[in-house]
Amino acid sequence: MTAQSSIFATDFSETPYWWDGWRPNDAGAGSLPRETDVAIIGAGYAGISCALELAAHGTEVVVLEAELPGIGASTLSGGQVTGGVNVGKSMSKRVSAVAANTAIEDRLREAAAGYRFLETLIARHGIDCDYRRNGRIAAAWTAVQVRTWEGRIARLNAHTDSDVRMLDRGELRSELASEVYVGGALINGAGHLHPAKFFGGLLTASLGAGAKLVCHAPVTSIAPAGAGYRIATGRGEIRAKRVVIATNGYTGAATPWLKRRLVPVTSHQIATEILPVELQKSLIPADRGVAEANRVTAYYRYSPDGQRFLFGGRARFYPLDRKASARILFAQMTERFPQLRDVKVSHSWGGKVAVTLDALPHLGRDPQGCYYAAGCNGSGVTTMTWLGHRLARHLLGEHDLASDAFGTPLPSHPLYHGQTWFMPILGSYFQLRDHMEKRR
After folding, report:
1. Cβ partners under 8 Å of residue 381, min gap 6
2. DSSP string, 183-215
3. Angstrom distance (rounded) from CA 38 to CA 229
4. Nearest to 374 by CA among 46, 43, 71
5. Could you say which DSSP state residue 140 is in?
6. β-strand pairing of 191-192 with 80-81
7. Using CA atoms, how far apart are residues 106 and 281, in angstroms rounded to an integer?
8. Which residues contact 120 (CB under 8 A, 6 or more apart)?
9. Residue 71 and residue 232: Cα distance in Å, rounded?
10. In angstroms, rounded to a whole number, what is the distance separating the alpha carbons of residues 270 and 321?
11. What is the pLDDT of residues 209-235, one digit of tens each?
């Protein structure tokens, strides 16, 4: 029997593994009101976090969701959480070195605050989401990647709570039962959680604070109306004094200005069947999350109960069915861990992350005056939850967006209009560069 016909478990499912713990549903949703103070478009981490903070301070808020709350990336992610290690990798060459350094450091501190907020939020609302602060490994395939991480450590440790140190090949081998890496970085100030259960707890807290949720209400247009806005949805119209767009990787035609500035990228994942006992602790003995240092990264971890192996990455840069993406990820997984070659795949799924053209998160207002929180760039659990909260604090009058570290202009490109025609080309280019560096 060939590998392609034998990798799937008999109970293989294209439903996300995380939905076994919490599944998107319309519990607590209501009918569409005629008006509200703040209308939030998108019931993901950012939208629900924003709604929670606003409702907790007495602001009338309605969250409009095209389908079910959390059905997008918020319940589909890898569940790894950090506070700053993905910020500052790409800065504009048009700014001076001093300005760039200052901007990076401000954003690092902001990202670190976001991670502290995430931990506080979980504790404050008693969210049972299997959260563990047990570290992340940035695994390096090449000496170039090791040197890049060595050059980042001082700044990360100075401005975040990441507590990073380098691992040589021997030390990394004690952390990962894989022979493919030459070294890496151990980020002690990191962890992982159950993303769907976290979202479910966040949603419960938001509804409990008084936020209103309307499901199956896709927004088709937003138009200025008097001192506010008229929002047309699949369930009728609603008027709002202020509008927040929190659609991130699922931004659509109703907000064309934002759509032209966000690049949706699908990240695919698989879960294995329950592992043999000898594999349940031997692959990653300290139960850390792992994210590779490649341009086209792979990431993996154990399930919260330690019984399954979860592996994710960019299987391809064009649409794939779930079995096709599973086959690609299975091949990548077993390249790193040949010990898993006889283990079956039980789940395969995928979700969209939003990449910005400067690889940074953003808070701001579009030309119509609508607010937005966007640009997780692959770090959605911490980043989007924090951006939603920060935007709510701005709406409550705490600070000006221009003074926020993520309140910088959201860049565009004259050749990009929201259609990702270039992703297969760009993705293949990055994969080729990764491959060439590995060969060297």
Report:
1. 45, 77, 79, 80, 81, 118, 193, 195, 198
2. EEEEESS-EE--HHHHHHHHHHHHHHHT-EEE-
3. 10
4. 46
5. E
6. antiparallel
7. 38
8. none
9. 21
10. 13
11. 999 999 999 999 999 999 999 999 999
Domain extent for 71: 3-439
Which token pair is 130?
């299997």
Chain centroid, CA 47 distance in Å: 14
Element housing 354 (H / E): strand 345-356
- The separation between CA 301 and the C-alpha centre of its own chain, rounded to angstroms, equals 15
Give the distance between the most distant pair of CA atoms in the chain. 67
Give pLDDT tens digits for 236-254.
Answer: 999 999 999 999 999 999 9
The tally of domains found in the chain comes to 1
Buried b (16+ CB within 10 A) or exposed e, 277-294: eebbeebbeebbbbbbbb
Tokens of 201: 């707890």
Tens of pLDDT, residue by residue over 381-439, are 999 999 999 999 999 999 888 889 999 999 999 988 877 766 665 555 455 565 566 66
**Lookup: tokens for 27:** 């519990």
**Mind spelling out the 3-state secondary structure of 18-75?**
HHHCCCCCCCCCCCCCCEEEEEEECCCHHHHHHHHHHHHCCCCEEEECCCCCCCCHHH
Q: Which residues contact 379 (CB under 8 A, 6 or more apart)?
A: 82, 86
Quote the tokens at residue 338. Answer: 């040949």
The CATH number covering residue 84 comes to: 3.50.50.60
For residue 53, CA distances in Å to 83, 211, 293, 394, 419 come to 21, 9, 35, 11, 34
- Model pTM greater than 0.85? yes
For 345, which DSSP code?
A: E
Do 369 and 291 form a contact (C-beta atoms < 8 A)?
no
- Per the CB < 8 A criterion, the answer to whether 340 and 294 are in contact is no
- The CB density around residue 194, as the number of other CB atoms within 10 Å, is 24
CB crowding 310-334: b at 16 or more within 10 Å, else e: bbbbbbbbeebebeebbbbbbebbb
